[in-house]
Every structure is written in structure tokens, then in C-alpha cells.
């Protein structure tokens, strides 16, 4: 495999394959259940039952951080593949249908006879913030063996979610995918996913970012946590020394994209906030769709902002409108 | 049981317990799949697979016509119970969670070891119309034995959907519930559900309406089909002779409520149409919530219109806003 060989896929996402159960809730429910508002907590099957029983009627939509990124990127015209594990059950069939229907190649076989398909109970408060509780289910059966080497070698950028670091098998899968990608002359991207996830695995993330990551996505809080930095500038200086490209999102303040000493500030696209679920995932999708199409950093950031603005305007983390024309119209 | 004994429930709904799979589609897909736009078609498991494969990514939400009515009525403050059959599977758990979380008493035990929970593939075209394809699954295991006599006797109004007439067992359940309700001095309401459903079972519906129905819900097309009438006035005259109360909905033209020679015209509430799924179900919910609270016919119609306007403003057939204050503010 020669560096720079044309790739069959622009983006390969690897992550936890999850079906979201989304419901609007009052602030008081999040407090009463003692959840950390705005963050993701791992829960077991019993806790999932208990929390679900307290939730109002909801809707089920395919989720998973990297899977959302893949679906959105495909909707923007990128050629996309995804690896992740669902079970052979009804929610697994929903996940498989939705990602395939979004135009994403999804070759991972389902888990048979093990845990059920993962689900994430998402409580959306009136301010649009989402508080997530994930029962990983079949995702824990995703390991090195599930890393399809051919697909990794065939993708210009392999994009992985920080949430993979919560399970040793997934962490091993992550490292194998990164090694395969680099050996094939491809690039590796990572999103830090969640401040608490960074806290849980800071040392591992620091080593990984330094050694293996070409493109890093993070929000301000996650980046500050990674470098235990006191302010944004310190964190930006640290990350610029360690990765080729860093894209740091700051909610309505837009994003900053760094490449060495180059620095681009990107405004947020106008949005009416209904549900912030998937904003970061969509930003990464827009960024990578533009990046793998050979666009400049500013265009990458702007397509990220545009995609994020679309998904926070409705419940659910994937596109409900066709943004291809808008994407093409970016300079 | 004495006529007029205070009832534990205002409304008991009986119907097909279904999880909806809702996706926005282009007009061309509905044509290509040769569907009758705006209507409901019964499909088998194979057809469900085939159609699902053609659908874009969707969302799963609890549905079922009478179940939607129950959930909306409970959201308007009515005391509501529901009877219908799901399987012991993931979609069945979703249905059970959602209707219970809406505040509806749902005592029917799940079907074990039979067909899976029913699903309705709903294609929503850009004009907001929904074209429905129902795989009845576990619903076909709902029969007379599933009619909980105690709950029927304890409900002021037993409300059933015309769709029950598509399965002989459900039709028998319908008749048993009506007989139990009347023997307990309660009232029986029916929605005609769908023009094609009326076509399939016209004779049975005609006999039922004449003999067993106190309150009939229908839209213009369904009523015209029932009486094979050439115009609305002929159909209205026919229905007024046969049922105690008839509520006839006419989309944006509002509704007409008849009781003997009394006739009330009700305007539609202002709405931005996103997805008309459940408009008729929500109208019946508002109407019956007001009716069982002792309100006059005009207030019944207005609460019906208000509930319908809320659900057509978003995807999904159940309330996403609390309408209790608005309901109480109706004269």
C-alpha cells in the first residue's frame, strides 16, 4: 500500500453502535435522578430499567457518536463506512437500517446470543441540553477482531470516538485501527467525546493524542480537561504542539481550527436550539466531509458549523434536511 | 351495575397496539412503491421487510390509532385505560413504557412466543400527508379473551378503532366490549379509521353503527363511504338518524358535531402542518376528554381541534406540549 493511494471511503467511523431513547424532561427529573446534566454516564441493564421507568414517552432513533458523524457526513456527500456492534434484535435492526439508509457501508456482523443492542437514555431539558445514560450492551463485544482491516486501509480518515476508551476491548480495537490506518498512509481522527470520559482516561488519551492522532476534535471543556489547562489559550498551545490539526468547538461562540501555527476562527451558524444531542458529532462530520474533499480549514470549520446548526434545530442527532447544496455553496 | 355509576376511567381505548416507524420521504417513493397515498394498507412480514429496506432513516414512536387517542386524552387530564396486544420484545417494551408514561393504565399482558410487536411503516411526504403500511404482528392475538370486563365496566366511554374490523378475533373483541359496556350503562364510541377500511367492512360497520355506537368519529370521506352518499349533507342526515352523537372532521375546514337535530360547526385550530399522522386520533381524544368532563358539544369539538392542531405541528401522533391549561381555558 502506497501513501496517498486513492481511497474507497473518505471517512471510516468506529464507535459504539447505539439506539437513542430521547424524551423531553423537566429540569427537576435530572436533579431527582442525580444525573450530571450535559454529560454521558455508563449504566448497567438494571439502571437502564430504572431510569427508563421514570422517563416520559420518548422516541427511538439511531445514535452513537461516531455513527451520527458517519450518517451526517454521508448526507453531505462523503463516502462513508462504519464499524460497530449491534445485537441481532429489533433495535439492532433499526440501527442497521438507519445507517445503511443514510448511505453508510456497515459491514460489522451482529452479535448473536449475547447482550442486546446498546441504548442511550437521553433526557432533554427545556434549555436543549441532553443528559445521556448509556447501557453499552452488545458494544462490549466490539474488539480487535471486529476491526475490518480492508475497510480501514480503504479509508482516507479513520475517525473514532473517545467513548471507545471505556471498554478495554474497544480501546484495543482503537489502537489496532490506528496502526492499520497509519501503515496504509491514512490519517486518524479522534473526538474526545465528553469531559468525564477524558477524566476517566486522561493518561491514555494524552499518549494517544501525542502518538497516533492526526486530527483531534474536542470542545473547550474536554480540551481543558485533557491538558489540565487553566485557560483556553494554554490548552490550544498544548494541542497545537501535539496534533497535526485540532478543531475546538465552543457552542454558540463557534470553533477554532489549528494547524501548527495556523489558526482559523469559525463562527457558529445561526440555529434555534431544540436539542443539542449530536452537535459535536455533526461538526466533525461537516469538517471531515470538507477536509476529505480537499477543502481549506476555514471551509472545513464552516461546514462543521452548518451541520451542527441543522441537527440542534430538532430532536435527534442526524440530518433531517438535505445540506448538499449548502455544502457545495461554501467557498 | 347501575346506569350512571361513577366510573374509574373516563375513557377506555381498545385497538391495535403498534409502534410507528416514521420517515420523511419524497413523493416519488410513494408512487414507486404503488401505495395509496394517505391511506392505511395491511402488509405481511415480508412486505414490511421490503418496504423498510426502501425507507430512509426513521424514528420509532409508539402509535396505534386508539392508543394515540388514549395518550393524548391522558395528557389533557382524562383518566384513561387501554387494551391492546404487544409481544414480549423490544418494541413491545417501548410501546408499554410510552403508554404507561403518558399516564394510561395498560393491563393487557404481552404475547409470548408468537408474532412480534406490530409496526406501522409511515411515509410522510412533504405535504405532511402520511401513507401507512401496517404489519399487525402480535395484534392478531387480541380477541374476546383480552377484553378485560372489569375495565370496560369501569369506563364511562369505551372507544374503539375501525381498524379492529380487519381481524375476525378483534371484531369479536369489539362486539364483546360493546355489549359489556352497554350492560354496565356505559357508552361506546367508534372511529371509522380509514376510507378503505370502511370499504372493506361496510356492511359490518353499518350494522354496528346502527346497533351499538353512541358516539361516532369519522372524516368526510369515511362517512361518505359508510353511507355511499353523494354529498356531505346526505351523509350527515344518515348518520344523525343512526347514532346519538357524530363528530365529522374535515381537515382545515374544521368539524361538524351532530346530536339529533342539534348541529354545531367547529373551526379548525391554527396549525403549521408537518405530519398529519394522528390528527383524527387527537381530535377524538380532545372531544372525549371534554365530553367525559361534562362539557357541551362545542367545547368538545374545540378541544378536539386544539389537540389535533398540536399533533400535526410535529412528527409523531402524541402531544409534545402540555395542553391542560389551554383545555381548562375553553369555555
Model description:
2 copies of one chain form a homodimer. In chain A, helix 6 (168-183) links the parallel strand 8 and strand 9. With 331 residues, chain A is an alpha/beta fold. In chain A, 40% of the residues lie in helices and 21% in strands. The first copy, chain A, contains 13 helices and 13 strands. Chain A has helices at 27-32, 45-54, 65-75, 90-101, 149-153, 168-183, 195-200, 202-212, 220-227, 232-242, 279-292, 297-312, 324-329; strands at 9-14, 18-24, 40-42, 59-62, 80-83, 118-124, 130-135, 155-161, 187-191, 215-219, 245-249, 255-259, 262-266. Chain A has a single domain, classed as Ribokinase (UDP-N-acetylmuramoyl-L-alanine:D-glutamate ligase). In chain A, strands 5-1-8-9-10-11-12-13 form an 8-stranded mixed sheet, sandwiched between helices. Chain A has a 5-stranded mixed sheet with strand order 3-7-6-2-4. Chain A binds chain B through residues 21, 24, 52-53, 55-62, 71, 89-91, 94, 97-99, 101-102, 116-117, 316, 318, 320, and chain B through 21, 24, 52-53, 55-62, 71, 89-91, 94, 97-99, 101-102, 116-117, 316, 318, 320.
Short description:
Two copies of one chain form a homodimer. Chain A is an alpha/beta fold and 331 residues long.
Radius of gyration of chain A: 18 Å
Biggest sheet strand order of chain A reads 5-1-8-9-10-11-12-13
Question: Unreliable segments of chain A (pLDDT under 50, ≥5 consecutive)?
Answer: none
Total beta-strand segments of chain A: 13
Helix segment tally of chain A: 13
Say which CATH homologous superfamily of chain A is assigned: Ribokinase
Amino acid at each position: 500500500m502506497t501513501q496517498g493511494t486513492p481511497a474507497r471511503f473518505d471517512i471510516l467511523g468506529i464507535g459504539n453502535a447505539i439506539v437513542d431513547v430521547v424524551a423531553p424532561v423537566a429540569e427537576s427529573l435530572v436533579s431527582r435522578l442525580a444525573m450530571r446534566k450535559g454529560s454521558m454516564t455508563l449504566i448497567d441493564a438494571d439502571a437502564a430499567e430504572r431510569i427508563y421507568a421514570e422517563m416520559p414517552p420518548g422516541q427511538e432513533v439511531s445514535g452513537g457518536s461516531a455513527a451520527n458523524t458517519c450518517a451526517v457526513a454521508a448526507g453531505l456527500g462523503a463516502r462513508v463506512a462504519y464499524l460497530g456492534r449491534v445485537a441481532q434484535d429489533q433495535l439492532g435492526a433499526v440501527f442497521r437500517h438507519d445507517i445503511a439508509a443514510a448511505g453508510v457501508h456497515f459491514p460489522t456482523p451482529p452479535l448473536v446470543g449475547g447482550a442486546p443492542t446498546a441504548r442511550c437514555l437521553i433526557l432533554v431539558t427545556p434549555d436543549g441540553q441532553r443528559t445521556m445514560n448509556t447501557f453499552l450492551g452488545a458494544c462490549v463485544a466490539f474488539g480487535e477482531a471486529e476491526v475490518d482491516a480492508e475497510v480501514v486501509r480503504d479509508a482516507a480518515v479513520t475517525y473514532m470516538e473517545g467513548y471507545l476508551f471505556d471498554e478495554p476491548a474497544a480501546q484495543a480495537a482503537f489502537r489496532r485501527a490506528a496502526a492499520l490506518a497509519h501503515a496504509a498512509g491514512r490519517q486518524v481522527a479522534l473526538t474526545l467525546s465528553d469531559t468525564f470520559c477524558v477524566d476517566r482516561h486522561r493518561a491514555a488519551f494524552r499518549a494517544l493524542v501525542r502518538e497516533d492522532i492526526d486530527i483531534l476534535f474536542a470542545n473547550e471543556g474536554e480540551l481543558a480537561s485533557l491538558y489540565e489547562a487553566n485557560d483556553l489559550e494554554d490548552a490550544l498551545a498544548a494541542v497545537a504542539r501535539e496534533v497535526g490539526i485540532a478543531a475546538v468547538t465552543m457552542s454558540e461562540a463557534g470553533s477554532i481550527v489549528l494547524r501548527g501555527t495556523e489558526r482559523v476562527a469559525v463562527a457558529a451558524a445561526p440555529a434555534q436550539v431544540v436539542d443539542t444531542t449530536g452537535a459535536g458529532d455533526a461538526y466533525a462530520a461537516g469538517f471531515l466531509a470538507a477536509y476529505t474533499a480537499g477543502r481549506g480549514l476555514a471551509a472545513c470549520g464552516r461546514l462543521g458549523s452548518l451541520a451542527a446548526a441543522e441537527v440542534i434545530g430538532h430532536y435527534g442527532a442526524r440530518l433531517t434536511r438535505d445540506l448538499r447544496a449548502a455544502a457545495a455553496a461554501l467557498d
